Amino acid sequence: MSDSKGCRSTSHDSVYLAEYYDLQAKADVTTLNAQGDAKVYLSALERQMESYYPLDHHGEHLVVLDVGTGTGRVLANLATDAVRDGIPLSNVEFIGVDKEPSMIHRALAVQRETPSMSQVGRIDWLVGDVLHLISAELLETHINQVDLLLSASGSVSLLFRAGELMRFFAQAAALLRPRSGRFYLSVKKDLISTQATTKPTDENATDAGLCERHEFPSELYEGIVYRQLPTESPALDGIIKRTPYQLQVIRRTDAGCEEVIEENHIECVQRIWKETELLECFKEAGLESVGIIQLHMRRTMF
Ligand SMILES: C[S@@+](CC[C@H](N)C(=O)[O-])C[C@H]1O[C@@H](n2cnc3c(N)ncnc32)[C@H](O)[C@@H]1O
Predict the structure, then answer these.
(1) Where's the Methyltransferase domain (predicted)?
(2) Do 281 and 250 share a structural domain?
(3) What is the mean pLDDT of the chain?
(4) How far apart are CA 273 and CA 70, in angstroms?
(5) In CATH, what number is assigned to the domain containing residue 28?
(6) Ligand 1 centroid vs 59 CA: distance in angstroms?
(7) 169 falls in which pLDDT band (50, 70, 90)?
(8) For the whole model, what pTM was predicted?
(9) Which of 16, 50, 103, 296 has its CA 20 to 30 A from that of 2?
(10) Closest-CA residue to 67 (of 183, 213, 145)
(11) Tens of pLDDT along 176-186?
(12) Which atom belonging to ligand 1 lies closest to the Cα atom of 153?
């Protein structure tokens, strides 16, 4: 089970958590420059468009696959930025995959609310696991056909169990178009080490914000407020970082009464990767790393 930030939770998959994820992401745009990744994906798309020859593609779409898509933030931004810059999208196919049905449900709504998405040639949303991508019916038919594979917001750190990273990269290698396909893998700076040890590159980049109390009024459900309560600080246990937090979904009445209708105790478990480990796994999976982009709080390898 995952929470709004894609972490392990004792709560049920919930429409409220999906909306909370969106509201938190919007708030992060100003506080954490969370949309700073948009320009990376836009220029990646532009580069793929430049080398797209319909004949090579046998008339097929240029395929962008966003894994751990959440509520479709990255794809919606990509469509909006592309339309703004006059990049035609009629020959582009977007596929968003997330293991949480509520996230995919919300991504569909985001698609409808985002006018630029109507210009994308084809859009599919899929409930599925990054560890089993190629066994999903839709993706079975996309082996060697994905031009751009995106894994944003450091979600790869959620693959903390032995063998999971390698499994994910092997699926990526099978899906990517040989030679021209590109995989953009974002890792948060506090969850990657460039040294032989697993000391994160940016010790100051903590999730301290999670420990504070935040409230967001719902924009979708009348009288609903999301309240993130203060919790303990993240605990680092070797290569594993555990961040607890608590989220209440509250219904407020006109009379000023409050009722907690959903209580989520969440533990976000993330693994700190050494950059060398990621690169070795890339290689083992048959992928070649051709560059690294540094952003404010993330490194994106491709
Ligand atoms: C941090 S959010 C990122 C969402 C989106 N990519 C963005 O940048 O806004 C991580 C997402 O990954 C999803 N996720 C986590 N583990 C997954 C897995 N094994 N397979 C598919 N999705 C997963 C979570 O449900 C969550 O929506």
Answers:
(1) 64-178
(2) no
(3) 86
(4) 22
(5) 3.40.50.150
(6) 31
(7) very high
(8) 0.88
(9) 296
(10) 183
(11) 999 999 999 99
(12) 8
Whose Cα sits closest to atom 25 in ligand 1?
Answer: 6
Nearest atom of ligand 1 to the alpha carbon of 131: 19
Q: How far, in Å, CA of 93 to CA of 111, rounded?
A: 13
Q: Give yes or no: residues 44 and 163 share one domain.
A: yes
Compute, in angstroms, the gap from residue 253 CA to the centroid of ligand 1: 33
Residue 183 domain-assigned?
A: yes
Domain around 37: 15-187+274-285
Same domain, 175 and 53: yes
Q: What angle do CA 171, 177, 180 make, to 5 degrees?
A: 125
Q: Which residue has the tokens 């390898």?
A: 301
Q: How far apart are CA 12 and CA 1, in angstroms?
A: 7
Could you tell me the two tokens for 229? 């309560």
- Region 3-32 average pLDDT: 66
2 is a domain residue: no
If one counts the domains in the chain, the total is: 2
SS3 288: coil
Same domain, 129 and 221: no
Q: Distance, CA 87 to ligand 1 centroid (Å)?
A: 27
Q: What is 132-163 written as a DSSP string?
A: GGGGSHHHHTTTT-EEEEEE-TTGGGG--STT
Same domain flag for 224 and 77: no
Do both 123 and 224 map to the same domain? no
Q: Which residues line ligand 1 (CB under 6 A)?
A: 2, 5-6, 25, 68-70, 73-74, 98-100, 103, 129-131, 152-153, 155, 158
Residue 45: inside a domain: yes
Q: 181 in a domain, yes or no?
A: yes
Q: Which atom of ligand 1 is nearest to the CA of 66?
A: 6
Q: Does residue 239 share a domain with residue 97?
A: no
Cα 268 to ligand 1 centroid, rounded to whole Å: 12
- Do residues 198 and 190 lie in contact, with contact meaning Cβ atoms separated by under 8 Å? no
